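Dear colleague,

Thank you for sharing your sequence with our group. We've completed the structure prediction you requested, and as agreed, I am returning the results in plain text so they can be pasted directly into your records. Please verify that the sequence below matches your submission; if there's any discrepancy, let me know and we will rerun it promptly.
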Amino acid sequence: MEFKNEGFTTRIESFIEKYYYGILLCALLLPLFNLFFKLSSNAIQDWDEARHGVTAFEMIKNNNFLVSTYGNSVDYYNFKPPLGMWAIALSYKLFGYNAFALRFFSAISSFFTVVIVSKILKDNISKLASIMGVVLLSTNYLFVNWHTGRTGDFDAGLALLFTICMYFLLKTDRSIKNFYFTGLAFSVAFLLKSYATFQIVAVIGLILLVTGKLFRISFKEYVIFILCSFVPIFTWMTLRYRFDGIKFLKSMITYDVIARSTSTIEGHTGNILYYFKYLLRNNYYIVFFMLFILICYILLKKTKLQLLNNKFMKISIAVWTIVPFVLFSLSKSKLVWYINPVHPALTILIVWSAYKLLGDKKVSNKLKASIFIVFIICSLCGEASIVHKINTDAMPSNQKDLISLANNGTIKGEDIYTEEWSQSNMFIAEVLDGLNPKQMNRNLFVKNKVQGLYLLDNNKDSKLFIDSSKLNIVMINNSYIIVKQ
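Please find the predicted structure tokens below.
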């Protein structure tokens, strides 16, 4: 699409056409900063990055990369296949056992999601739209911060693989091989996030049905697609079945699919407007830009839906945006990061809508300039929110104090007991400090004369207990006291 009238936006388009790759590299510094700046300094989260971090560590320690464990026992709480843990384990090997390595996979996944969204916009719309997509998605607060790009969770990876699926699906007209790559990307996504990938199946199936492609693909091509989609999954399932039968695989279905969709899990509830409210509260600037573009269309009387040009992409992006949002809005269990794969699609939809106005010769240059100005202001608001979150979400002092135990080399490798380990403290003690955390009541620890260390909070009650039990203090800091018998 070319601008057909001279003016402000035409000069911007010409400048970007001439220096696109240099501008793109500069624009990509934005997601790099937002995703990696102070990545290791934020609080370790109990849900779910700490648990993933422990599991990945134990895979390396036990040299068992098939079965997920937590506290050196088979984990029948986290019913995810092992791919995400493998990614964190690889990060450990590259960067050592630290919070940066725990989160690297998520951060790099979000970065490449931005890159692929930029590529989709460049290939299908324009280089200007590509740059706008980089800026808009990189300043999306929920996409960057919340259980995604800056934590050791797997939702950023799912968003990347979902986006890869759509990238190849949009290229199926060029080569049927891209359809097979779509299936392969789906299988990798399943090995990362299990049945959360059903949304990918729903989106792709509906796109093929609505566009008519469902009936134009041959039987042979469907067979190859199914093989690409499910052979990796069934290979893993077979290996897992040999370990503990159907116990783990059955729980994947009963808990991750049936329970999450039909009942409220762990108090994660909300009404049908749950996700809309979160978007309005945290991504208000994106919602404002959407409304601004919509008002422009209404005032210019351009509300008629045009599907003749690039019909397949228009339907695909719309379905990609709407279907996951609707599915999770109807689900009983709700968490804001469930709709993380929607953000790349919504970015493409918003940028495309804005660009159609910028490329319309009937739209005045003043209105085009206004669109650019509003876009820049909204992006700055998003950037300010992200930077504020990064700077204020500092690691709490008790976590820092627990991490400092690693400085005492004399206790490394020791068994250390406490009443109950939170997942974040378990990660710190086992992965960062090199200890062997175990749980036991403190009175039982003393009664049974257990050999090892015991972790107590640094308070008056603990000091009285130490005195009455005649325990020896090994270490003490502002938050904790470590004792032994």
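Summary note from our side: The chain has 22 helices and seven strands.

Kind regards,
the structure core
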